[in-house]
Amino acid sequence: MSFQYKLAYLLHKYIDYLVKYAEFPEKEPVFENFKFKNELINKVLEKNNFKLYKHQVEALRFLYNNKNVVVTTPTASGKSEIFRLFIFDHYLENSKNTFLLIFPTRALLYDQYEKFEEREKTFGINIKKAVILGDIPISKRKELLREKPNIIF
After folding, report:
1. Alpha-carbon distance 114 to 140, whole Å?
2. 131/56 Cα distance (integer angstroms)
3. Do 69 and 55 meet the contact criterion of CB atoms below 8 Å apart?
4. Confidence tier at 16 by pLDDT (50, 70, 90)
5. Distance from CA of residue 53 to its chain's centroid?
6. How many angstroms from the chain centroid is the CA of residue 29?
7. Does 43 have pLDDT greater than 90?
8. pTM (2 decimals)?
9. Strand 151-152, strand 129-130: pairing
10. How many separate helices (H) and strands (E) can be counted in the chain?
C-alpha cells in the first residue's frame, strides 16, 4: 500500500477530527560545532566525522548552562545522542556522577542500553550501569544501588 493511498484513507476516515493538514518540504540538515569539556569526546567525534545537528547543539548549550530542555524532533534525529554525549562528557569529568534515565517502555530502555554500550566502545570507556525495572524486588534494587552505578536505567 503506497503512502499516498494510506494518507488518503486516513484523511477520509478522520476528516471530522482534522483541524488542519499541511505538508512540509524536506529541509537540508543544519550542522553546528560544539566543544565538549573532555577532549576525548571531541577527538573521537572528529575522527569519526560525527556532526551535530543545530537542535542538538542548542540543547547541549542549555544543558551545559544547567537548564532543563525538552527536544521534540522526528524519529532518528539524534535526540538520545544529546543526553548520551552529555553523560559521557560529565562522566569523564567526574566518574562519581550518577545519571537516572527513565523510559516509558522496556523496549526503548533496552534499545538505549545497547546504544550506550556502543558509545562506550566508541569512546573506549566502561561505565557502571544498572537496570532497575518495576518487577525487580526491593532487596535486589537496594543491592544494585549499593554498587553505585553511574547510569541507572
Report:
1. 22
2. 26
3. no
4. confident
5. 13
6. 18
7. yes
8. 0.80
9. parallel
10. 6, 5
CB contact at 8 A, 58 and 70: no
Interatomic CA distance for residues 50 and 36, integer angstroms: 13
Percent of the chain whose pLDDT exceeds 70? 100
More reliable by pLDDT, 22 or 55: 55
Question: Could you read off the pLDDT of 107-148 as tens digits, one per residue?
Answer: 999 999 999 999 999 999 999 999 999 999 999 999 999 999
β-sheet bridge partners, residue 99: 151
Q: What is the rounded distance in angstroms from the CA atom of residue 38 to the CA atom of residue 44? A: 11
Q: Which residue reads 576525548 in cell numbers?
A: 40
Backbone phi, psi, residue 94, to 5°: -150, 105
> How many C-beta neighbours within 10 Å does residue 61 have?
13
* Cell numbers found for residue 81: 545522542
pLDDT of residue 74: 86
